[in-house]
Amino acid sequence: MNSVQGLLAASVISIQNSCFIYPACQNCFSRLILDSRRFNCLKCGCTGEAKDASYRYRLSLKIADTNDLFDITVFGSCLDPFFGVTAENLQRYIQDFNQLSGETNTESTARALVQAVETCFIGKRFIFGV
């Protein structure tokens, strides 16, 4: 599943999602269902305390090479160098920022993150392993 079949040099046209971090199951990497105290993985049945949930990057992009458009999703730690921190730490920074600033509208923090990601990725050329 993680083997690269080929390389594709392409430019990022747009960001397809506004949520780049998700709570991920340690066993199967599926999205966890979180409530205020617990997490649950619907795929493998893993459960635990919400405070112990780990996070993972998921960045969906529309890209173009010289001939075609593609929709791709980039997962996991390969995005750490672009964000400068792990998904776990970025999630913690966002939560801490919202708490310390007294920010009740977390939508403004999310918009700022989307703008930063768009600035860093859109129009840039990357080599993708597909």
TrEMBL record:
It holds the Pfam family Rep_fac-A_C. It comes from the Eukaryota. GO terms for biological process: negative regulation of intrinsic apoptotic signaling pathway in response to DNA damage. GO terms for cellular component: cytoplasm; nucleus. Residues 9-96 form the Replication factor A C-terminal domain. This is DDIAS protein. It comes from Ploceus nigricollis.
